[in-house]
Design goal:
Blueprint lengths: L1 H22 L15 E3 L4 E13 L10 E14 L3 E12 L4 E4 L5 E20 L2 E19 L9 E3 L4 E14 L2 E19 L8 E18 L5 E3 L1
Antiparallel strand pairs: 1-12, 2-3, 2-11, 3-4, 4-6, 5-6, 6-7, 7-9, 8-10, 9-10, 10-11
Length: 237
């Protein structure tokens, strides 16, 4: 029995190299590359609503002075992303303004005052997006809620007439919007509003025949909530 066991061990020892040779070389193993995070895809298509705050500054030769006025309002619109980094849309916006009943004193002592209580617009906009950012330009119809008054040198209200459409005009602007969370974006925007000149065709002698510009420069910051057709930003592998 002892001789049998010794013989079996010897056979195993002598046969191991040959068996290993039959198996061939051992395969080599490489470390798997680390997993990469999925890239985010931002979808601007869909409706949105939001709010804004900022300031308005009258242009030169206005009845209102050019000191800044606080403004705050709301906006809503629709965007469509295509081709694939371009965004086209339409937006309605209205901002209420702090009271600023300023005016002009004429040579004979008459005064004319104007107070703009709000600015609104309906515009188209076109933008270019990369990642979560959207750079855009906008333009379209503008309107305002303003009142005008004329007093004589003695402080009495005076009848007057003006030409043109003082409260209807156009607007152009540009801005940068950033999608900082799913369904949420923030923006900063410059917008210029231009209305027909205020030309007095009747009134006190020193007022009649005078003309003033009617325009405003505005800077606003806003935030939007987006009801995207394609949903919020998704992951792309």
């Amino acid at each position: 029995m002892k001789k049998f066991l010794l013989s079996a061990v010897a056979v195993c020892v002598l046969g191991a190299p040959a068996f290993a040779a039959d198996l061939g070389p051992r395969p080599t193993y490489t470390k798997a590359p680390p997993a990469t995070a999925p890239a985010a895809v931002y979808n601007w298509t869909g409706f949105y609503i939001g709010g804004n705050v900022g300031g308005a500054f009258a242009g030169s030769n206005n009845l209102q002075d050019d000191s800044g006025r606080f403004m705050g309002g709301v906006q809503g619109g629709f965007d469509y992303q295509f081709a694939p980094n371009w965004v086209v849309g339409v937006e309605a916006q209205y901002s209420w303004m702090a009271s600023n009943n300023t005016g002009v004193i004429f040579p004979a002592g008459s005064t004319a005052t104007e107070n703009t209580r709000g600015l609104g617009s309906v515009t188209g906009r076109l933008g270019y997006t990369w990642g979560p950012a959207l750079l855009y330009a906008k333009g379209g119809y503008a309107f305002r809620d303003s009142s005008l008054g004329v007093n004589t040198a003695g402080g009495l209200q005076s009848a007057y007439t003006t030409s043109g459409s003082r409260n209807d005009g156009y607007t152009v602007g540009a801005g940068l919007e950033y999608m900082f969370a799913p369904s949420w974006s923030a923006k900063v925007e410059y917008q210029y509003y231009k209305f027909d000149n205020t030309t007095f065709t009747g009134g006190p002698a020193d007022v009649a025949g005078t003309s003033f510009r009617s325009d405003d420069h505005t800077v606003k910051a806003g935030i939007n909530y987006r009801f995207g057709w394609g949903g919020p930003a998704v992951a792309k592998y």
